[in-house]
Structures are given as structure tokens and as C-alpha cells.
Specification:
Layout lengths: L1 E3 L2 H13 L4 E6 L5 H13 L2 E6 L9 H6 L4 H11 L3 E3 L3 H4 L14 H4 L1 H5 L3 H16 L3 E5 L3 H13 L5 E5 L19 H6 L1 H13 L5 H12 L4 E10 L14 E10 L2 E11 L2
Helix pairs in contact: 8-9, 11-12
The structure holds adenosine monophosphate.
Adenosine monophosphate (AMP) binds next to helix 2 and strand 5.
Length: 284
Amino acid sequence: MEIIKNTQLLEQKIKDYKKANKTIGFTPTMGALHDGHISLVEPSLAENDLTIVSIFVNPTQFNEKSDLEKYPRNLDADADLLSKAGVDILYAPSVEGIYPDGSDYEVDIDLGNMVKVLEGEHRPGHFDGVLQVVKRLLDIVKPDHLYMGQKDFQQFSLIQAMIQKLQLPVNLRVCPIKRAANGLALSSRNQRLSKEATLLGSIIYMTLDHIKNNFHQKTVSEWKKWAIDQLDNDWSEPEYFEFSDGYSLEDVELQENHQYIVASTAVWIEKVRLIDNMIIKKVD
Ligand code: AMP
């Protein structure tokens, strides 16, 4: 595996690959890699001539400076994992490599309410940074296929909307949430949890799964109250629990009115903010 930190060097390589008609699969990450990230790399390896993974802790998507500072970083261990998985190129740029001085890379598109709900409501400006960095990375890497996780449901929904609005020449593939044996969704932030909290964190999965299996038994507002109550403990505090339309991310009031419903939550455990979601209903 090649590790490339210089953006111009990567761009030159990409030009050569494109000339040789090779297809490129791309997985953007912020590092501190785990099996969830590897589960995005695997289909990329199977479906493309070349697989590129980026590791870039994007400062513009952190609304809390302390969260950015505390974000786990370990390039050597990450490189090892990616190399063993069979990745061709690890792109690990500097902040200047992504946002050269004096340049403005804001993505000026109106995604309406989709940006404002859920994480958008609780992390102001977060998705401006996400759209900005993904657009920038797509411009540099020029992949045929982009691999993202359902773990960040609103994120992939917005990226899909951006791809459509800007007619970007890339196919988004969304991969299922990879979980620990107890159901806790894998996340780089889990590294900051104690062993005990990692076990207790299964309450998030159990809450979502219980709703999925019994959805018809209560109304949406009853389930919301029930979920908040489950997640509110001495050691855990829910920030929100919402049911949204899986296509538009609009609030769901009556389950009968929607073909596709996702439940999303953010929960604080030991000062770590964990997000998770589950598709509760999907009629194909
Ligand atoms: P991150 O490094 O957290 O920015 O995540 C990079 C990509 O990995 C995003 O597309 C995430 O949705 C995806 N991802 C993170 N955790 C998981 C997981 N547990 N299962 C599947 N994909 C994940």
C-alpha cells in the first residue's frame, strides 16, 4: 500500500489511472479505524480496480473545538489495518493540502430542511463542513464509487442529495452498520469509553431493536417517550430520539403515512456522544 500525503502527487496518480481506464473506489474516513471502516473497504476492493481510503480529521465539521482536539488519531495503526485489508492507496493529507491558504471551498447548495434536522439541529454548521470536505475529496480523488456507512444516516443522505444536485459523476454505495457483539455500533469515539460503558452502551441498540420488532404496538410519540426513558439513566443521557422519513428526513408523526422510517438517536455516555440509527420500516 502506498501512503500519499501530498495532494498534487495523488492528483497526478489519479490522472494516470484514469488514462488507463481503471475504476476507483473511495472511502473517506477520519481515522481511528475499526471493523466498520473495513466493512466499507471490502466492497470497494471487490468492485474496483483501485481502492483509495483517506484519513483526514476535518476541522471544519467540528462544532466543538474540544471534540476536535480529543478526536483519536493513530496513523501508523490505521495504515497497518488498511494495508492488511488490501487497500492500494492511503491518502492522508494535511489541512493545507485540503484547504490551501486563502481558498474558499464552501458548497453553495440548498438542501432545505434535510440539513437542519437531527444532527444538523444539534451540531450547527457540522454538515456545511461535511459537504465541503466530501466535495473537495471527490474533486481530488475522482472515484467511480464512493463508500459510506449507514451509521451516519443523515450524512449519506445529504451526500446523495449533493451528488444529485451537482450531478457529480460518482455512485454512492451505502454499507450496513457494523456492531460489536453486544450491539453497540462501532465508532472511533468508542475508544474513549471505559470497558463498563462499552457494555452498558448496548442499551442504544436494544432500544432501537425493540422498537423495530414491536413498532405497530405504539404510536410514534409513545415510542419516542419510551425510548427517551430507556436511554435516560444515571450513566447515559439521550440528546434526541427521532423518527424520520428515510427519504426526506422529515419528522414522522403517523407511521401509516410513511413507507420508509428510520429512528435516529444521539446519546451521551461518559462525556462521549454516541450516535446510532435503525431502519424501522421499509416497504420496497
Ligand atoms: P468516520 O471515520 O467516523 O468519519 O467514518 C467514515 C465512514 O465510515 C463513514 O461513511 C461512516 O458512516 C462509516 N462508519 C463509521 N462507523 C461505521 C460502522 N460501525 N459501520 C459501518 N460504517 C461505519
